[in-house]
Structure formats: C-alpha cells, structure tokens
Amino acid sequence: MNIPIKKLSLTILMLACCSISVFAQQKKTSKKTAVLSDRQFWLQQMDKMVKPVLYNLAKDSLRINMPKVTSIHIDNKEHRIKVQYVEVLGRVLSGIAPWLQLEGGDAAEVALRNQYRQWVIQGLKNSLDSNAKDFMNYDIGGQQLVDASYVALAFIRAPWLWENLDKKNQELMMKSIVTTRKFKPVFSNWLLFSAMNEAFLAKFGYTWDPMRVDYAMQQMEQWYVGDGMYKDGSTYAFDYYNSYVIHPYLAGIAAIIGSKTKDYNNLFEKIRKRNERYAIIQERLINTDGTYPATGRSIVHRGGAFHHLADMALRKVLPKQLSLEQVRCALTAVIKKTLESPTTYKNGWLTIGLYGSQPDLGDFYNNQGSPYICTNIFLPLGLPSTDAFWANPPAKWSSQKIWAGEDFPNDHSADLR
C-alpha cells in the first residue's frame, strides 16, 4: 500500500512528538517518585507531625492556633482543653528529644535540627513566661502529673535542652515539675509518672524523693504477671500500656536511679530481662503490612503503641533475636500504615483515630494533645545515619518471614519473676 509522502512525514512527526512527550512524562514522574531512605521518610513524617506544635509555640501562638478538639466521649471538655498544652508539649518533646540531642548528619538534616532546636528553646521559654500567651501552668489538674513526666523524660533524653536553657528558666522548669507533687497518682501506671519526675530532679542535681521512686518500683514488681508483662493497676488489661508507659519508664528510671543507689540492682536486672522479652512480643505483633491488633484503650496513640520497641532500639539493647534492620523495617511499616490515611491530619493537626479520623475510638480523656504521644516511635532518629540501625540493608521482620512460608523459630513464654 502506497502512503503519500506528506502523510507519512506527518505520521513520523506525530510519533516523534508522542515519544518526546512520553519521555518527558516519565522523567517528570521519576522525579516525583524518588525513593526516600527509611531515615529520610522518618524525618519527613516527624517534621510534618510536630512542626505545627513547635513552630506555633516558638511564635507564642500555640493557644491561638491549636484546635480545641476533644474526644466525643470526653468527661470534662473545658478542663481537658485547659491541660492540652502541657500535654502536647511533653508528648512531642519526649519523642524527638534523642534527635535534638544528636549531632551531625547530612546538611539538610543538620539544618532541620538547628531550626527545631531554636523553636524548642524559644518555645520552652514562652511556656515558662507568665507574661506570654503560651504560658503553661502545671497545677491545673491531675492529668498534668502525667504530662510533666513527659516533659521530664524529654530533658532526660536530651540533656542538650537543659544545658541550653538559662538558669532562670531551668529553675522555673524545675518548680513547674515539682508543683505536680500535689496530685495523688492514680493507683496504676501513674505511679511511674511521679517516679519519672523524681528521676529528672535526681539527674539534674536537685533534691529528689526516694519514697516516690521506691513506691513505684515496689508496686510495679507486685503487678508483674509474667512473660515480660505487667498489670496496669489491680487488674490485667490486654492493651499497649506496657509499651506506652510501663517498660520505657521503668528502663529510664532504672538508668538514673541505678547511678544513685545500688539498692535496686537485683530488681533492675529483672527489669532488663523483661524489657527484652516484651520487645520480642512487640515485634511479633507487627503484621506483614504494618498493621497490629487494635485492642485496648488509648489506641489513638497510633505508633506510640511501639514506644518500647523504639526505645530499645535507641538504647541499643534489643535482644539477640531481633536484628536492628528488621526492627527498623517493622517500625517503618507501622509509621506508613498509621499515617497514610488522608484524614490523619486536619489543617495540619493530628486527628483522633488510629487510621485517619475515627472519633469513636477516642477515650474520655483525649484532647488535641493526646495523639502526639505517637512521636515516640521516632526515638531511633537519635541514632546517627551511620549506625547499623539505619545503614544495614532492609530485612523482613518476623511476621513477613512466617507468612511468606519461611521456616522460623517458634516462640516461648518466659516467666522472669
């Protein structure tokens, strides 16, 4: 079949244009889908989560711009809103503190950290300035015993913060935390909040109350039920409070109080072994796609459910059964799954839910600050990019190996009493 020269030339030209267009689109698409390293992804998600909090606090505009959202099951809306500011401060800082403490990294990360350091120091000063809009009073209600302990934990994890506060603000911070002694802790994991505040005082050279620490240590020992898990009070509940609070707090308190007295050496050795056992259980709870059982109260804490596993990785005390890279990959999967819903944020602020906005999952004590405890999954950012946690190649975690049909060691309970 003969094709006119003009028509043939036009056809060739059109095909060439299409090829150029497709190539340009492919090039453009490749730029858009550039693969981030795990560390870059974690930093990106951390920045997205905490920036609205710390930027506004540094500008003395947190109370103006932070939504006054509470759970639909709230018990006392007005009071819960009043305490949400110390709550969000403690929860955000406790999670990013190790990264703030870290030095070095690539230029982009160093610049980001320097910016956050400036915001945090200025924000802390605003929170302690009675003339500032964002002044935070620590004696409004019992919930602030909880929230002060997260602020205390942040300073413990990042002494840089303490060292870069001037003496006046150090004293104001100390007095704010001491103020919460007036609140009687609930007979539960709350005993650890009191003990953590005392550990903070002990670490930074203030007079601390050994009785509050002893009471928490002895009572938690009474509540140990076996296989690395504790009751949260007089009854056992299958939730994530062993990770939200109990194990990370026991480990943090032990590290400080253990340097002050040898009275708890035997107990602290038990705590260490239980820390390891519960880390093994936590890693096995992470499904092949980063989901995990949505059970128990405070499930809206999202990735905070793996506070303990992240803390063990940060402190480089994971049990031998868990490689650094499998834990990194498992936690990355959790971060992706819990933050991927388009309704995770509303106007830049975390919503109440586990997978996006799910109001009915909230508890009676949840306010806008509550979900930010999930920043504690970012603790390993306190390890440098050269650390094996980040540098080792990706690896499957336990559930991925098992559900891919690979042969795999079975699991056994451990009493550890």
Looking at the structure, what is the overall shape?
A: globular
Question: N-to-C terminal Cα separation, in Å?
Answer: 90 Å
Unreliable spans = 1-25
Report strand order across the widest sheet. Answer: 1-2
Number of helices: 17
Largest sheet: 2 strands, antiparallel
Keywords:
globular; two-stranded antiparallel sheet; about 425 residues
Walkthrough of the structure:
The chain is an all-alpha fold. Helices cover 55% and strands 2% of the residues. The protein is built from 17 helices and four strands. The chain has helices spanning 5-32, 38-58, 62-65, 77-82, 84-101, 107-128, 143-157, 159-163, 167-179, 190-203, 210-222, 241-257, 265-285, 307-314, 324-339, 388-391, 398-402, and strands at 224-226, 229-230, 345-346, 349-350. The strands form two sheets. The protein has a two-stranded antiparallel sheet. A hairpin with a 2-residue loop joins β3 (345-346) and β4 (349-350). The longest helix is centred in the N-terminal third of the chain and has 28 residues, at 5-32. The chain is globular and about 65 Å long. The protein starts with a helix and ends in a 15-residue tail after the last helix. The model is unreliable at 1-25 (pLDDT under 50). Residues 38-397 form the DUF2264 domain. Residues 1-24 form the signal peptide. It comes from Pedobacter lithocola. This is DUF2264 domain-containing protein. Pfam families: DUF2264.
